[in-house]
Amino acid sequence: MKLKTAYETGAIPHGEHPRPQACRKDWRCFNGYWDFYKLGENGERSFEGKILVPFSPETLNSGIPERFQLKSGEKLVYTRKIDLTENLLQGVTLLHFDAVDEECEVFFNGEKVGGHKGGFTAFSMDVACVAKLGENTLTVVCKDEGTRNGGARGKQSDRRGGIWYTPQSGIWQTVWLESMPCEHIGNFTITPNAEKKCVKISSVGDFQTEITVFDGDKEIIREKFTDEIVLCYDFELWSPENPKLYDFVLKNEAGDEVRSYFGVRSFGKTRDKKGKMRLTLNGKPYFFNGVLDQGYWSDGMLTYPSDEAAIDELALLKNMGFNTVRKHIKIEPMRWYYHCDRIGLVVWQDFINGGGEYAFAKVALLPFLGFKHKDSDYRYFMREPAENRAEFMDMAEEILSLLYNCTCIGVWVPFNEGWGQFDSARITEYVREKDQSRIIDSVSGWYDQGKDKTELKSLHTYYTPLRVPKDPRPVVLSEFGGYSMKIDGHVFDETKEFGYKKFRDKDKLIEALEKLYIKKLLPLIKKGLCACIYTQVSDVEEEINGLRTYDRKVLKIPVEKMSAINAKLKTEADKIE
Length: 577
What we know:
Layout: E1 27-29, E2 32-39, E3 45-53, E4 75-84, E5 92-97, E6 100-101, E7 103-108, E8 111-117, E9 123-126, E10 134-143, E11 170-171, E12 175-180, E13 189-193, E14 198-202, E15 209-215, E16 218-225, E17 228-232, E18 246-252, E19 257-262, E20 267-271, E21 277-281, E22 284-285, E23 288-293, H1 307-319, E24 324-327, H2 334-343, E25 346-350, H3 360-368, H4 386-403, E26 409-413, E27 415-416, H5 424-434, E28 439-440, E29 443-444, E30 457-461, E31 475-481, E32 483-485, E33 501-503, H6 506-525, E34 529-535, H7 559-573
Parallel strand pairs: 23-24, 23-34, 24-25, 25-26, 26-28, 27-29, 30-31, 31-34, 32-33
Antiparallel strand pairs: 1-12, 2-3, 2-4, 4-10, 5-9, 5-12, 6-11, 7-8, 7-10, 13-14, 14-17, 15-16, 15-18, 18-19, 20-21, 21-22
Helix pairs in contact: 1-2, 6-7
């Protein structure tokens, strides 16, 4: 007898509240089975049936029984009935989509209520004027030309292989709804200051709001304010070694209530006693020892299978001794950042790349040979269309707004290895203007535009010796390693594999990693190296250089081995003054 999956027995995938930093009691998750079909250019239907939201139709978890591919000009149509009760029909009823790839229109009871372009960022719309008590119909029509029109696509490619992955489409993060009074608490920002041990809460509305802050179960602050408030207290500072968070509740006289949390920490730069530029956490030199995370899964692709799966993977990295994760060219659900906040992992957050198809010589060979190029040359970097660059800027604003309050995020990474890079000095200033509380790795890897235009000297080193070049900026190794080992029966393709240095024996792989970290990297810390990001958390399709296999069933490096290696790095880093 075939056993039913948890989803088949009625559980809702990703049914937890999707916004831990903005929780209201009146909300509803619309994940689960939706009616679904693909609409061809001539109106023909195919793949009619059910799909499990929030998994894209290309994924195993979606329930689509055969291999799915969305071609140019085709659309996806999702429909479901939703039942609304009185508590969900207050003055404002917001319908949220946390990610739809790549463009969509939304209809509620037959009326168009909104849409969005950009496959990685969240959007919402007020449906109060068309929603009704009882049964309602929600329809979402999607198309995805992102891999063809130069839009934001991440690592997706119609010609997948190597470091490029199978494209997906449609809804791939949670769909949900919340309701609140007309005079509700608006979007608010949380800006901590570790030096002064205070936190500023701002932009909640133009009416009086009460804030109550808790340390565990103990109430420590209760104040009333209008536009913003600065809370000062003997707050414990957040760090990977002490991921201390404080819960708080916002209430207003109209009856709106929002539950949230914050951590108090600061990211910055300083010179150590030997004159080397260092990155800091809470005002002190700190070595960011991390791992690159593509966030791809064998059964859900961009969508991890469950909240528990995300927690388990982050806890694994922490137990291995890492203190940092570089989230590579992807935006995760807000719960993922919440788990980093509470587990204690700093996040270096990439923006999403786009532009034309990348020429190997430009994005790999020429930089490897030492060639430089100005990123005002839009043709060279495949960024000629003005609307394409404008879309990137719209997405950048959405990312900065969406993730601003996350305690864990310490570094923004606008561009990676020249992939659609343009005007990086101007965009660095734009990001700095929006957020002065974090570091900016403007052009991770290469095509550095100069020490007077970027904050970091950011290196990707796979084939050449590790080193710390002379530079007035903090030097970070934002990608390195990439050692690969094929585990038969746990790969995407038994005939194809990609990695920077291949091993066939687990003991040899462990030995090589120990040499890489202890013999080659550790001595660079005292010479000024401020961070290292190992490639990578897991295998992804043909790319088999992960610490885990793509199916997450085999761990290539034992926890205790990686933990011992990282402990030695920490001991060396703790000597920095």
